[in-house]
Design a protein that fits this description.
This protein folds into two domains: 98 residues, Alpha-Beta Plaits, CATH 3.30.70; 42 residues, no CATH class. The chain is 25% helix and 22% strand. Keywords: Monooxygenase, Oxidoreductase. This is Antibiotic biosynthesis monooxygenase.
């Protein structure tokens, strides 16, 4: 399947990005609902860190036609918990354990890159990019 080749072909990029200075997280993964969709999530400490990685990033090892793409960049000035936990202390305790992780089970996040239950500011202005790619539709230029 093209989607699986696309995801596997971008594995070297994901590995390189995750070890690059300034990368808080990067994931390129198949969507569990839409069979032709690939989700790309990137979180960088700054635009400069993202630009530095782009200058040295490896090329994908598989070439797959992208028939539709939606690329959105979000400039984030603050991160924090998704809910106000002050009125639900039992869930706040759980949230503290969950948000201490970086999206990969068992791997602690660096203390300065992920909020605790009270909400902490991440140094700089993290850059988050979300990309949605879908197979089987008309090609068009992605917006950034």
């Amino acid at each position: 399947m093209d989607r699986d080749r696309f995801v596997e072909g971008h594995r070297p990029i994901v590995e390189a990005a995750r070890s690059h200075p300034g990368c808080l997280d990067l994931s390129i993964s198949p969507d569990p609902i839409e069979s032709g969709r690939v989700n790309n999530f990137e979180c960088w400490e700054s635009q400069e860190a993202l630009d530095a990685f782009r200058a040295v990033a490896p090329r994908p090892s598989a070439s797959v036609e992208i028939r539709d793409a939606q690329v959105l960049k979000h400039d984030v000035s603050h991160t924090g918990p998704p809910f106000d936990w002050r009125h639900r202390p039992e869930e706040a305790a759980l949230a503290g354990r969950v948000t201490a992780r970086r999206g990969r089970f068992g791997e602690p996040a660096p203390a300065t890159t992920w909020p605790n239950e009270t909400g902490t500011k991440v140094p700089g202005r993290p850059v988050r990019r979300q990309v949605r790619r879908t197979a089987g539709t008309t090609p068009h230029r992605a917006h950034s």
